[in-house]
Specification:
It is built from 8 helices and no strands. The protein is an all-alpha fold.
Length: about 220
């Protein structure tokens, strides 16, 4: 049984993480003022005018809607308190989340990855992120339907971690700016590190927790 200080610390970290996610999401949404109508002098749209209206704009605007939506929904859905207090709403919002990721976020992210401004390495990282996110949410949905809820929660936690890459990549960019690092490799590296590193940390932590659980059960 976890100790009271451990539970209190875990809840505090969860709250702080949710606040950080919502703060970064709000900052991202605030930048939308540069995108409707598109301002091609804005950082993200700089240099994209030649191909923007050739189909890229559809993926771009779909991603603008789906990104914050799935991130906020994910923050709510991974809350154990919310799931226990509102199980019916958890299921309803879960369906919305799965549809949003599979039909909107992942396809638009994959399309946009082909136009990554900093080259093929960044594009491959973002494309892989879109594919892995779609696989994780599809498996999470499958196990929920099969009522294998422990496995379902693990796949949905992986999905949430992948969605949070949008937050992590901006934190990496912010740290690079503060540290006055303007190297060309920063964005390509962060396109991979923003989701591979958090996912690896989760898998290591989960494996360690499972091992401790088995040892305690056999003691």
């Amino acid at each position: 049984m976890p100790s009271v200080p451990f539970l209190a610390t875990s809840r505090l970290l969860a709250v702080l993480t949710a606040v950080l996610i919502l703060k970064v999401t709000a900052a991202v949404v605030f930048e939308y003022r540069h995108y409707m109508p598109p301002n091609f002098q804005a950082d993200f749209l700089l240099g994209r005018e030649p191909y923007f209206w050739g189909g890229y704009h559809w993926a771009f605007y779909v991603h603008l809607v789906a990104g914050p939506l799935t991130l906020v929904l994910g923050t709510v859905l991974v809350s154990e308190r919310f799931r226990q207090a509102f199980p019916a709403w958890h299921r309803r919002l879960g369906r919305v989340q799965v549809a949003s990721v599979l039909l909107l976020l992942a396809p638009s992210g994959l399309w946009m990855a082909f136009y990554a401004a900093t080259g093929a390495v960044a594009g491959a990282g973002l494309g892989a992120l879109a594919i892995v996110t779609a696989i994780c949410v599809a498996l999470g949905w499958r196990y929920a339907v099969q009522r294998r809820f422990q496995t379902h929660r693990r796949w949905m936690m992986r999905t949430f971690i992948l969605l949070c890459s949008a937050v992590v990549i901006r934190l990496i960019g912010g740290l690079a700016t503060v540290a006055e690092i303007d190297a060309m490799w920063i964005y390509p590296a962060s396109a991979w590190a923003s989701w591979v590193v958090p996912l690896l940390v989760y898998e290591i932590g989960r494996s360690y927790g499972d091992r401790r659980g088995r040892l305690a059960a056999n003691a």
